[in-house]
Design brief:
Helix 1 packs antiparallel against helix 2. With 52 residues, the chain is mainly alpha-helical. The protein has one domain.
């Protein structure tokens, strides 16, 4: 399960970088949403890796 969340975090990061490098590719809400999602996913990965 940890690997799945880590991959999801990397995928969200890659999407955010793509949207930031190519302005106009996504709406501001999508970029804001990905930016808000990244800390949550990173905290989840850290909690799962140190929890068990």
């Amino acid at each position: 399960m940890l690997l799945a969340y880590a991959l999801l975090t990397l995928l969200a990061t890659a999407a955010l970088v793509l949207f930031l490098l190519r302005p106009g590719l996504a709406r501001a809400g999508v970029v804001w949403g990905l930016g808000a999602l990244l800390p949550l996913l990173a905290a989840l990965v850290v909690a799962l890796s140190h929890g068990g």
